[in-house]
Design brief:
With 199 residues, the protein is α/β, with parallel strands linked by helices. Helices cover 37% and strands 19% of the residues. The longest helix is centred in the last third of the chain and has 20 residues.
């Protein structure tokens, strides 16, 4: 059986990653691919624009996903966020019956969209996403508030307006990232089932 592929996009801190893992954890044969593992090497992390499509090796993601859809193993890249470099050794991965691909820009690329059985966009208000991002980066990543806000204003917000938000029009379904997690998860699982996916 060919894997059922779901792309899940949305702005930073919209709730897409939490949603994907909530649904994936309930499925015994599921693979979650984060677009973040396809970041290219970064020469200067302080000035780098992580929210631009050119920051990601999406062509590699397309090739890996095509292999998995065809029932073939793939060697996925591993990105070290401490050094901002890709590790030399890839991660051998086998295809699964359900594959999620999540990231802010996964609906931006036409080739990637063509490999999906279901395309999802998670939407949340800008002020809520900023509040969530501040909390996450300060508490979980030890960053300073000024640095988080500076990055948000210089690259995150412009990238969202230019690339991420317009990609919602490629979605088959838009989910409310402000709704309770279990409501979102149930809605996504129901849509996968309705499309013939393994839910």
């Amino acid at each position: 059986m060919q894997p059922f592929v779901v792309l899940v996009a949305g702005g930073t801190a919209s709730g897409k990653t939490t949603l994907v893992h909530a649904v994936a954890d309930a499925h015994p044969d599921c693979l979650v691919l984060s677009h973040d593992r396809y970041y290219l090497d970064v020469p200067d992390p302080l000035t780098h624009d992580y929210d631009h499509p050119e920051a990601l090796d999406t062509a590699r993601l397309v090739a890996d996903l095509a292999r998995l859809r065809a029932g073939q193993d793939a060697s996925l890249p591993r990105y070290d966020f401490a050094t901002h470099r890709r590790l030399a050794q890839g991660e051998p991965t086998q295809p699964r019956s359900l594959i999620f691909v999540e990231g802010i820009l996964v609906l931006h690329d036409a080739q990637l969209r063509s490999l999906a059985d279901l395309r999802v966009f998670v939407s949340a208000a800008d002020d809520l996403r900023l509040a969530r991002r501040l909390q996450r980066d300060i508490v979980e990543r030890g960053r300073e508030p000024a640095g988080v806000l500076g990055q948000y204003l210089s690259t995150v917000r412009p990238g969202h307006r230019r690339f991420v938000e317009p990609s919602r029009f490629h979605a088959d379904i838009v989910l409310d990232g402000e709704a309770p997690l279990m409501v979102m998860a149930a809605g996504l699982a129901a849509m996968i089932h309705a499309r013939g996916g393994p839910m």
